[in-house]
Amino acid sequence: MNLVWKLLRQHISKWQFVGFFFANLLGMLIVLLSIQFYQDIIPVFTQGDSFIKKDYLVVSKKIGLVGAFTGGNTKFSEDEIADLKRQRFVHTVGSFTSSQYRVDASMGVKGTLSFSTEMFFESVPDEFVDVESTAWDFDPDSRVIPIVLPRNYLALYNFGFAQSRSLPQISEGLIGMIDIAVRIRGNGRQEVFQGRVIGFSNRLNTILVPQDFMTWSNKTFAPDADIAPTRLIVEVNNPADESIAAYLSQKNYETDQDKLDAGKTTYFLKLITGLVLVVGLLISALSFYILILSIYLLVQKNTTKLENLLLIGYSPQRVALPYQLLAIGMNALVLLIVLVLLAGIRSYYLDLVLDIFPQMQVASMLPAYLSGAGLFVLVCLINIGAIRRKVMNIWYRKEL
Fold it and tell me: Which of the listed residues 151, 272, 332, 391 has the most CB atoms within 10 Å of its CB?
């Protein structure tokens, strides 16, 4: 083995060695960095306060001048909802369900009564609610109603109502300070419930309760009411699709134009992110191709020596082994260097991201480690197979 290695290493070019090394280093670094960056940044895209998430539109019928005085029909029929679902830009459609009974609420902070008012409840299917909580359900025996408020309500309370009444300001982390007593009247019945605020919504500007509570309460307090929806929530595939505005105009529907414009911005940002990922994968594939090509050139340069070794009785496996060990050793060194570089680059960009999103959850590096190990094994197998095939070609030619 030592004699074979001493003979073969005399014809190893340092520049080929360096090219082999850095091609592998660049390819593996790009792949692992892409994987780790995606794992770290995806919470910014998907968490409740993210700026890139699914695109939703709240659709309602326009109220004309006549309808404002006559109470024109603003409810969606089943046929209209079915027609909307058939549009190619629609992914899913959900209906708002409104409370059909009278609701009075008394709200306070830390046991101090702040105000009493008439209010209303609405609900949407659970998959459209952008607040994650294990308390988002209703049990008639518990007498507790989970409530999600619009986030702008909290700002109105803190900077408007609380200051004028010398009441304590509250943060989202102290939502347990809010006490709500809810009195519901209808169908000859009256019952009192405890309202429990479990979160604040960026997506829906309404007072949300669970769908199962809305179904139970409407059935109990307004069994004969017409509960056809007056608003729909629509998840769209591409908010930049021009057919959305055309369809809404044709049907005399309306939506929040600001949300439509914001959806277009997030769509283009997703598109740019995808293009960068594709370019990174392409560069990685080219780097691995250069790596394999370098090995072929290295073996090709030593073809004469390899033929001589095979002629004097060395087996193809023994002749190929030094090159295979060299490739494995270099791949192992590359993996260690890549992991060190990855940790340094990740530390740098995480500091920048956490300054902007301090509440972002930091992901684990385990996916990158596993991917690195998988790439190491894959590249080693490719290298070993390429070297073996090249040596066997020389062996077969010698026999001929």
Answer: 391
What is the Cα–Cα distance from 208 to 146, expressed in whole angstroms? 8
76 phi and psi angles, rounded to 5 deg? -90, 130
Q: Please tell me the total number of residues recorded for the chain in this structure.
A: 400
CA 215/CA 380 separation, integer angstroms: 60
- The reported pLDDT for the residue numbered 69 is 43
Instruction: Return the HEC string of 108-173.
Output: EECCEEEEEEEECCEECCHHHCCCCCCCCCCCCCCCEEEEEEEHHHHHHHHHHHHHHHCCCCCCHH
From the list 44, 128, 4, the residue with the least C-alpha distance to 350 is 44
Q: Cα 332 vs. chain centroid, distance in angstroms?
A: 33
β-strand partners of 184: 103, 191
Q: So where are the chain's domains?
A: 2-49+266-399, 55-256
Nearest to 142 by CA among 188, 99, 195: 195
C-alpha to C-alpha distance for 44 and 182, rounded to whole angstroms:
36
Q: Which mean pLDDT values do the consecutive 10-residue runs of the chain (400 residues) have?
A: 60 67 78 79 59 72 58 80 91 92 83 74 89 82 88 76 70 72 91 88 86 92 88 82 81 74 62 69 69 68 70 72 79 90 90 75 84 85 80 66
**181: which strand partners?**
106, 194
pLDDT of residue 67: 46
**What is the pLDDT at residue 111?**
61
Backbone torsion region of residue 108, taken as left when φ is above 0, otherwise alpha when ψ lies between -120 and 50, otherwise beta: beta
Token pair recorded at residue 42: 């995806």
Check residue 186 and give left, alpha or beta (phi > 0: left; psi -120 to 50: alpha).
left
Alpha carbon distance 328, 331 (integer Å):
5
Q: What is the pLDDT, as a whole number, of residue 267?
A: 64
Report the alpha-carbon distance of residue 282 to residue 278 in Å, rounded.
6
3-state helix, strand, coil in the chain (%, to 5): 60, 20, 25
